[in-house]
Amino acid sequence: MAVIGFIGLGNMGGPMAANLLKAGHQVNGFDLSPEALDLARQAGIEARDDLNATVTNVDVVITMLPAGKHVKAVYCGENGLIATVGKNTLLIDCSTIDVETAREVAAQAEQAGLSMLDAPVSGGVGGAEAGTLTFMVGGSDAAFEQAQPYLAQMGKNIIHAGGAGNGQAAKICNNMILGVSMIAVSEAFVLAEKLGLDKQKLYDISSTASGQCWALTSYCPVPGPLPASPANRDYQAGFTVAMMLKDLRLAQQAANASGATTPLGQEAMNLYTQFDEAGKSQLDFSAIVKHIRKD
Ligand code: NAD
User: Fold this and answer.
1) pTM for the whole thing?
2) pLDDT tens digit string along 227-268?
3) How far apart are the first and last CA of the chain?
4) Ligand 1 contact via 98 beta carbon (within 6 Å)
């Protein structure tokens, strides 16, 4: 059994912390939101009133926060995690944040003699509850080995993507593929409608031909061909437009900073921005087909 400090007990962090508790660890939790703390208490987590009390004398600290600025605020500075935790504490940030901040915070941790991993996830709230998340991990081999048992109690696939920041890099590259391919599949269905090609026929053909991809066969954006996809329940999320837009923005930020040319990633971000600004941020991201169809 280990003692774990868990910071950020929201939609994802709450159930992830609960799975660590179920695996037999002592879990101390902290969140700025009293509601999140109450829910954590009900799940049996030792909810603490401040950050320092949560991370003193723990073996591992896991954070699950909204964005890079929150991660920086929690880890850095005089009262931050890096200055507070014991020398043998392993730090794991599971938030989805920009690569630059992930590398900057990991470098500060290293300077202080601490091991830190970036370990963003895919799998959503369902995966967090079921303990079936995929972890994309950046950091040293030794830290990865040390973290694996804990990550395995929250997830199913745990992949070491390389050095610091590479977990975040993997996450945004993957989600850029997803955003672009969801738009491509949506455009194909809209064109098929105009051409009088039945959507089920297009699905049957493309799902077994070279147009096959996850956006088509696991998350089809039109109702009918795939009964489990969000299109069949009025695009109730799932993975929201706001979340896809966040990841596409992170991908463009990284592309600009690194000099990579990603014109389709840029256009995907533009289309999701327009859809988000039309008040659709909480719909499932596959609803982009409605924007393309001009519904
Ligand atoms: P959320 O908003 O539900 O939870 C974030 C929590 O962090 C909130 O409870 C908030 O109060 C807390 N918080 C913010 N600043 C804090 C601070 N300084 N100290 C302590 N607590 C603080 O968000 P979420 O859906 O749980 O997502 C968390 C991260 O996981 C994000 O980076 C998101 O991009 C990523 N993610 C989410 C999903 C999903 O489906 N929700 C899927 C994959 C990845």
Assistant:
1) 0.95
2) 999 999 999 998 999 999 999 999 999 999 999 999 999 999
3) 54
4) no
